[in-house]
Amino acid sequence: MLKIYTGSCHCGAVRFEAGIDLAQGTNKCNCSICSKSRAWFSFVPGQALRLLQGAEAQTEYRWTPPGKPEPFLHFFFCRTCGVRTYASGDHPSFGGLFYAIAIAALDEVDADELAAAPVQYIDGRHNRFDQAPEDTRLL
Ligand SMILES: [Zn+2]
Can you give the residue range of the structural domain that contains 96? Predict the structure, then answer.
């Protein structure tokens, strides 16, 4: 079921809300940046995210995986506390503008609801976004 969740960084400078259907699943990926940041995220379409506060408090890191058009992904985080809030991209293969919402940044999510959300594992390290990695133990 699509619900509106609020999220924030640790120091509270950045606040957002996002429409997410947790039953559609959350994602954990083994690509180089997801591994370093222990990313856990849900994809939502561009209109599903609303930044409520802190546009000026955020900064972004841009990364383009090898072989992808530039700039491919924008990873937003609070410049004070460093907490990642979401990433964005804009690509036809994803249906245009999309966000990857950081599940860990959501506030007041029901633990049972979150635990029941299926986790999809992605083998981004080998550019296989359609399959799970062989080893998911550390994701
Ligand atoms: Zn912050």
Answer: 2-126
